[in-house]
Amino acid sequence: MNSFTTPIPEDYKDQGLQTNGILKINSEEEALVWLWTRPKLFPWPRPVEWVLSPVTGNREWPGDLWGIDSDGELIIIENKLSKLGSRLVRSSRTYDPFVDFDKHWEKYKKECSAASILKKWEILLKEERKEPSRLIEVVRPKKGVLPHSRKCSRLQRWPILTEEIERRVRAGKYEKTVRIYLEERLKHQSCPHYCGLVVKTKEEKNVQSLDYCSGSIEKLQKQVGADHVHLFEACARATADGALKISVGTVQIGVNALSATHHG
């Protein structure tokens, strides 16, 4: 499990923390802020850079976050707030992070190509860099690479992290790295890795018992192979010194899932 610590945001200092120390975030999209801040937080065997935070639905550009690793492998993440133990949410798009990936690779291979991603990313990065800061409230924020739904309120809830993200995506190193990784993707254009990220908001049984999406996991594994379907768990928990420890770990869903021993 990978992690980093950060101060508790002002919005959560008087609410959100539960007796067990777990932070109950208001929106699943806040977990994207954590990943954008520290790409190394994502437990993957190779370095990753994030390129897109789609908000266009569940067809051509499904998921909440697209990334490219150093081998040119495409990573598509859909994150959900955990609702373990509830029979009412079985097979529900509200809580199942894999439903929107059904037949995506079959229908939209073009959108997964290096050329298509590069074109979209260049446009959005240019727009992102035009914005003074996502922390400034505007009526209609422009599209960019960062999460911008709900008038960027998720980014604004984490101002310290957002400042760090903006410095990073405006730096030349970020752009250079993404271009290098996309050059690697040109060599193979392989099937994406479809990843579910479940955010724990209370103390509960392990995410490994996520039985309400087991059907969609098995269906997707048959379409793209078990080694291209992954499940992760995220959590923010208060530390003894009053900060937050944000963690992301791998959940085993089959013999071909990423092993915790491979984390860098």
Number of strands: 7
Radius of gyration: 18 Å
Quote the beta fraction.
15-25%
Unreliable residue runs: 85-91, 255-264
Fraction of residues in helix: 25-40%
Helix count equals 8
Structural class: alpha/beta
Largest sheet data: 7 strands, mixed
C-alpha geometry: globular
Q: What's the pLDDT, averaged over the residues?
A: 84
**Distance between termini?**
10 Å
The structural domain count equals: 1
Order of helices and strands: EHHEEEHHHHHEHEE
- Strand order, largest beta sheet: 1-7-6-5-4-3-2
Description:
- With 264 residues, the chain is of the alpha/beta class.
- It has one domain (2-262).
- Helix content is 30%, strand content 19%.
- It contains eight helices and seven strands; from the N terminus they run βααβββαααααβαββ.
- It has helices at residues 10-13, 30-37, 104-107, 114-130, 149-156, 159-170, 172-185, 214-224; strands spanning 2-7, 48-52, 65-69, 74-81, 193-199, 229-238, 243-251.
- A seven-stranded mixed sheet has the order 1-7-6-5-4-3-2, with helices on both faces.
- α2 (30-37) packs across α6 and α4 (114-130) packs antiparallel against α7.
- The longest helix has 17 residues, at 114-130.
- Mean pLDDT is 84; it is low at 85-91 and 255-264.
